[in-house]
Write a structure and sequence with these properties.
Largest sheet: none
Transmembrane segments: 7-28, 54-73, 80-101
Keywords: Membrane, Transmembrane, Transmembrane helix
Protein name: DUF5658 domain-containing protein
Order of helices and strands: HHHH
Number of helices: 4
Number of domains: 1
Structural class: mainly alpha
Shape: elongated
Radius of gyration: 15 Å
Distance between the termini: 40 Å
Organism: Flavobacterium suzhouense
Helix content: over 70%
């Protein structure tokens, strides 16, 4: 893999990670501001009507996290960075799984 391809994949992985973090922060704000019976509607109302699919919006962050983790771990040069990346990915995966169980 040449350097420009690697940089492009890292850029896409960073964008994926930003989407995941934005989705997690959105979910935390919804859980703090609404009753549990209103979580689904409040969450779906934050997205455009074309992408309002509860299952898709629950699975997409997991797929993006797997992609971003794979790219970051493959591009890391030291074991410390690999371990840090894996730890952050695990923490985000747990938060996303918590979100999935409260939504579905």
């Amino acid at each position: 893999m040449n350097n420009s391809t690697k940089n492009f994949l890292i850029f896409i992985a960073v964008l994926s990670l930003l989407f995941i973090l934005g989705d997690v922060f959105l979910w935390v704000n919804i859980t703090n501001g609404y009753n549990p019976s209103q979580y689904q509607s409040a969450y779906l109302n934050q997205y455009p009507e074309q992408v309002r699919n509860l299952k898709g919006l629950s699975i997409l962050p997991i797929l993006l996290l797997v992609f971003a983790s794979f790219i970051f771990i493959r591009s890391a040069k030291t074991n410390f960075i690999k371990i840090t990346t894996a730890t952050i990915a695990t923490a985000l995966a747990l938060i996303i799984i918590w979100k999935m169980f409260t939504l579905l």
